[in-house]
């Protein structure tokens, strides 16, 4: 009983539960943002907490049982990491509202059958972000009179379109619309491509000494692509492709 005879009504269990998820998700998001390269101060500003709180989140000194449960679930962490990746790509200025993300995390943990729907929703949102980035970068490329800047913006646009295409394929695979069975390539073929990509990356080493910042940025982007190609082929090799038939 409160002063004046007014009853103190208890908050609904569902609201309390979601509030707990929001707090836990905030802790995990803070840690992921710092890991992704956000400064402690920027993370604190976007999450509406103090820098000291972010430092505690990042060090794992503040969290609790629910945070540990979230971090132990690969499906849930993929949702949160996708959210932080989209945040890093798209940029935000206002304090983040984590309600929807916390709801998705709760659904994934408490109702596993709905987890795939939540992941699909996040993938679709990311596809939209990639398409928007591609359109914006292409517009900037057409506006710029600097050919190197145009090349840079066009690369961002092409990368974003490729990301959207990859995410669409992943979405189709997760929904069962397409299958991913055998690679139908031999281990020897993949190893040859792997070595080729490694050599391509090494051949760029001399070009990295160019002083022009735009040229260096473009060369660096090619180098990153070659490294990415190498890692992708290595990942394919881990799927255990078929061995070449003896001649």
Q: Would you tell me the overall average pLDDT?
A: 80
Instruction: For the record, give the distance between the C-alpha atoms at the N and C termini, rounded to a whole number.
Output: 88 Å
The total count of strands amounts to 0
Element-by-element helix/strand order: HHHHHHHHHH
What are the low-pLDDT stretches, counting only 5+ consecutive residues below 50?
Answer: 1-16
Q: Report the radius of gyration as a whole number of Å.
A: 23 Å
Biggest sheet descriptor: none
Name the shape in a single word.
Answer: globular
Number of helices: 10
SS-based class: mainly alpha
**Residue share in helix:** over 70%
Tell me the count of domains. Answer: 3
Protein name: Transcriptional regulator
Organism: Thermoproteus uzoniensis (strain 768-20)
